[in-house]
Write a structure and sequence with these properties.
Elements lengths: L3 E7 L4 E3 L17 H10 L6 H7 L8 E7 H9 L10 E5 L11 E4 L3 H9 L5 E6 L1 H6 L6 E6 L8 E2 L12 E8 L5 E7 L9
Parallel strand pairs: 1-6, 1-7, 3-4, 3-6, 4-5
Antiparallel strand pairs: 2-8, 7-10, 9-10
Bound molecules: NADP nicotinamide-adenine-dinucleotide phosphate.
């Protein structure tokens, strides 16, 4: 069955963005993007690059991991503010929001339904894996459904910010098995963890 994968850049202290929710990698961003990091994305995760970046870098590869991206409204609006109504035209693109009245782009599906029910429905259909891009609030809402974490651990601390699963996630410890890792010279580490399924209780 296709997996729900939270593929996300994280600081050493567990944050994905500044407290104000601004774009950490934009022109005024603070998140370093070293050359070897960018090369790794282009080679291993080409479909996760936004359309404008793919165009600028001459990337045409379809990628082999994901065919669908799920995005929270705050994250989606970062692109919208600079006129990008669909940053992932090469993927099926769902934006979760209970306030956006209509989609700014016919190719982008605005979903007001429960993200968990939506993901369970998506998983019933064949396809490549489903990428949760974030942000923290959406990932927190989908916490119970995430099968794989691909953490792009940055050699960076911020002291504060938006946590990996947002501010509203419930306390629910889970364990994960490390299934892949790549250490880059620049200090970033790509860590892939698959969720360890809970053992059935004895006698059940
Ligand atoms: N480090 C990275 O790789 C990375 C990747 C992506 C994003 N980010 C950063 O993440 C930050 C934004 O994160 P965030 O946590 O503030 O917001 P977010 O998750 O992007 O968006 C939150 C919004 O999504 C909708 N939503 C969330 N849960 C929902 C649910 N259960 N049902 C329906 N809709 C739901 C709501 O929209 P409505 O209010 O319209 O209902 C909510 O206000 C940005 O700074 C962005 O740059 C970082």
């Amino acid at each position: 069955m296709r997996k729900l994968v939270y593929y996300i850049a994280v600081t050493l202290d567990g944050f994905i963005a500044a407290p104000d929710g601004a774009d950490p990698t934009g022109p005024d961003g603070f998140w370093p993007i070293p050359d070897d990091y960018l090369r790794h994305l282009v080679t291993e995760y080409p479909e996760t690059l936004p359309g404008p970046a793919r165009q600028a870098l001459g990337v045409t590869a379809a990628g082999e991991r994901f065919d669908t991206v799920l995005e929270g409204r705050h994250s989606y609006e970062i692109g919208l503010k600079v006129g990008v109504t669909d940053a992932y035209p090469h993927l099926r693109h769902l934006v979760f929001s209970r306030t956006l009245a209509q989609s700014p782009n016919p190719a982008v599906e605005v979903v007001s339904r429960d993200p968990v029910a939506t993901v369970r429905e998506l998983k019933r259909h064949d396809g490549r894996d489903i990428w949760v891009i974030g942000g923290g609030a959406l990932a927190g809402a989908l916490y119970s459904e995430i099968d794989r974490l691909i953490v792009k651990l940055a050699p960076l601390t911020t002291g504060a910010g938006i946590p990996l699963f947002g501010h509203g996630a419930a306390f629910a410890p889970r364990t994960w098995r490390l299934t892949d890792h790549t250490v880059l010279d620049s200090g970033a580490i790509f860590l892939t963890y698959d969720r360890v399924e809970a053992e059935p209780a004895e006698g059940s």
